[in-house]
Amino acid sequence: MNSKRNLLMILLLIALIPMLSAQTSKENKNNLENDLGIDLTKTYSGIEVQTIIDIVLEEADKSIDKAYKEGYKQATIELQPQIDYWMHLYNTNKNSKKYLKYSLISFGSGFIVGGYCGIKLKL
Q1: How confident is the model at residue 59 (pLDDT cuts 50, 70, 90)?
Q2: Concatenated DSSP letters for 85-121?
Q3: Is residue 121 exposed (0-12), middle (13-18) or buried (19+ Cβ within 10 Å)?
Q4: Region for 23 from its dihedrals, namely left if φ exceeds 0, alpha if ψ lies in -120 to 50, beta otherwise
Q5: How far does Cα 67 stand from its chain's mean position?
């Protein structure tokens, strides 16, 4: 029983040490003295709070749009070599389809004419 109490006291001391040694940091003081000039101790009306929220949302939308446009530009610059390669491949295959069509027509007509001549010569 005595050992359980000693263990409990040690655990309690370990838990209290961080709270006892905590100090106020400069970040906490800077939050009270913010750059926007908002007095955090004052009570603001709903209209003032809504105005601030609207400004924040508008700035966030502008930042998101700007980041999207920058990302889109960067992607098009990085993908330009691949676009050129696939465009060249498409143009090459487009021309070869035309030649393939003519070769199939030639092969088909040659097959028909050859078959007809073979049948006529055999008879």
Answers
A1: very high
A2: HHHHHHHHHHHHHHHHHHHHHHHHHHHHHHHHHHHHH
A3: exposed
A4: beta
A5: 11
Tokens of 108: 């088909």
DSSP one-letter code for 75: H
Residue-wise pLDDT tens digits, 7-26: 877 877 777 777 666 555 55
CA separation for the pair 40, 30 (Å, rounded) = 11
Does pTM top 0.70 for this prediction?
no
User: Phi and psi of 32, rounded to 5°?
Assistant: -75, -30
Amino acid at 16: L
